[in-house]
Amino acid sequence: xxxxxxxxxxxxxxxxxxxxxxxxxxxxxxxxxxxxxxxxxxxxxxxxxxxxxxxxxxxxxxxxxxxxxxxxxxxxxxxxxxxxxxxxxxxxxxxxxxxxxxxxxxxxxxxxxxxxxxxxxxxxxxxxxxxxxxxxxxxxxxxxxxxxxxxxxxxxxxxxxxxxxxxxxxxxxxxxxxxxxxxxxxxxxxxxxxxxxxxxxxxxxxxxxxxxxxxxxxxxxxxxxxxxxxxxxxxxxxxxxxxxxx
Length: 246
Prior knowledge:
This protein is of the alpha/beta class. Helix content is 53%, strand content 11%. It has a 5-stranded parallel sheet.
């Protein structure tokens, strides 16, 4: 058991470092260092004191705690990913493209670019659909996420008059709530464009915000970062539930 915890701890620390190096604009990668410590400390303690009942009990307790945590996250992650299966109908009235990190040079991050590419494909196939790009300017962003997205879409042929900008929001709940000034939440058919790991939470937030006819429009995400994104979503679901926004 000690050897398993040590291996898991090293793997968790290495994975956290790989997420940190992406410079995604958040410090959530630190959770992997916390998990690494929860594995390494009891694992190394038992390895150094193999005959100590206290060290053995510490190691067993850590293993059980981590196993329960992993099962809860796996259960929630399964539910999250199932939400990506639905296919949105054609000719939606609006697409809400949810915001994500903008790079220091003003270009979209990988996560945001994936959302934009999905939105662009839908808008090209459905010329009557209008876009609402959502997201304010973070302290580490040179321009608002909405401005970045609008420019990206316009450069690829989407007419300026098809794009509305919601540039005040800082959270998913605000994205959806503030965007409602551009559409009729009770009657308009709305697609919510976001990455696959984020569709479930976005749809639940939209329903709570009163968007009656909404579909998730799932964008691609990089497989390597999916564990980090799913874990972050699990905490996001808890946060939004406690705040009453989903």
